[in-house]
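Structure in, sequence out. Go:
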């Protein structure tokens, strides 16, 4: 049985854990190393159970502790060459990934990484590069899409194939437009290489999900331009307008920015 934990989801730090009985995978390592170690200890998960790390992109809130994790626990780190190059340049990553553990992958190709079959795909964002991941294991398809400026055909395809989906619902558009951010930052957030709004998230799910989609987690909510209940209600309302009922056709949860989700079993 697969298990999933979100250790943090938002600009303060992103880190997700996916595991079988004998293999563990981290997706993004944007929490401080001490915080991450504490979370693993609190949940009774041994850090040496993590055998590989996947990175989506090179922004600090996704990579802060990746070098420490790789170095201390001898963990290979998989991402595209552009993301690896961005990690090397990023001053927010004081400990770099040892060269032996730098593993290159390409979008659209499928890789066997431990017990997981992993396919990275393009996700538009204003970073050196950015990928989502389709992860297949034990007959389950788990898909994560974060920091997405817009919904592409690749993203639509991967939503349609997912049984379990982590999808960004970063902001409410009106809160951004009427909020205190300077004009350049508002423009960045709302652009096609910025972040996904609650409405765009809901429409993407409604228009592309299949009957095999069981669970959706909304991730990477803005602290200033969103609220968990607002994100949930917006997405739920859009799904309802398509005849999709939360609790009957689909389960929906919002991941907390700074608190772990608890251990979630994927069946």
């Amino acid at each position: 049985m697969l298990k999933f934990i979100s250790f943090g989801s938002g600009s303060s730090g992103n880190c997700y854990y996916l595991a079988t009985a004998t293999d563990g995978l981290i997706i993004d390592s944007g929490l401080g190393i001490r915080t991450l170690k504490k979370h693993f200890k609190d949940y009774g998960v041994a850090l040496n159970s993590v055998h590989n790390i996947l990175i989506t992109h090179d922004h600090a809130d996704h990579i802060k502790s990746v070098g420490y994790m790789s170095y201390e626990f001898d963990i290979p780190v998989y991402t595209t060459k552009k993301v690896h190059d961005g990690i090397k340049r990023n001053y927010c990553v004081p400990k770099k990934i040892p060269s032996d553990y730098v593993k290159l992958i390409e979008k659209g190709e499928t890789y066997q990484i431990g017990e997981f079959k992993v396919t990275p795909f393009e996700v538009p964002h204003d970073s050196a590069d950015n990928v989502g991941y389709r992860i297949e294991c034990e007959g389950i398809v788990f898909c994560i899409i974060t920091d997405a400026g817009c919904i592409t055909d690749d993203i639509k395809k991967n939503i349609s194939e997912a049984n379990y989906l982590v999808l960004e619902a970063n902001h409410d558009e009106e809160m951004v437009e009427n909020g205190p951010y300077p004009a350049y930052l508002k423009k960045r957030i709302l652009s096609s290489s910025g972040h996904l709004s609650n409405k765009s998230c809901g429409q993407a799910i409604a228009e592309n999900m299949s009957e095999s989609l069981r669970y959706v987690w909304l991730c990477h909510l803005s602290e200033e331009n969103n609220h968990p209940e607002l994100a949930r209600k917006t997405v739920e309302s859009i799904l309802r307008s398509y005849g999709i009922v939360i609790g009957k056709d689909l389960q929906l949860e919002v991941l907390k920015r700074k608190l772990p989700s608890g251990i979630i079993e994927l069946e």
